[in-house]
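Tutorial, part two.
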Amino acid sequence: MFELLFNPSYVVVGLALLAGVTILYFGLTQLRRRLTGAGWGVLLLALAWGATAYLVETPRETASRGTREFVAAVVSGDAAAQARWLSPEASLSHLTKDGILEAARIYVPQYGIKSTTILGLESTDGGETVTVNFRCWADLAPDSKPGQKIPTDWRFTWFKYDREILIQRIDYLGMGNGTSSDVDRFNEQHFSQSLNVPATSKGR
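Running the prediction step on this input gives:
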């Protein structure tokens, strides 16, 4: 219901506006006051609905926007912007929040990532959480591997707190057509205690 009210399809809002205009038109042309009043009512409600949907951001919209902003902050090296979106309990494989920030600081320049493009972003509202799945294409700097773009798949799990929604868990899902073994190997190589930062418990 929340999504329907604050994140309706443009088509639905458009149909509501069309219905209001149509009713209003017949009311005015036929000089029927009640029909005219109903037309104005439907038209104003549709306008208010559209304005509310535009101004109020749903948890899914916040998570989608936050995902893009977090990835951009990782590439630009803006640790403060990264931390802004991470919950205190945030984890990535064995890493805690501090480990995630440290991993971003180390690996972006190490791999020469100069920009990223997010494609196929999909968000799902699960009640207390919002799950965002996406593919990130990383453009590597010329002095690393000229012209190479690396696709990696990720899942961000956002938790809804009282007044904000923050990333609670980050999952690396693979690189292109990689297998689950490749994912495990990548996590162990990049997101483990080798960073010399706090590690989460294995049961987490």
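The chain has a mean pLDDT of 82. In part three we will examine how such features are distributed along the chain.
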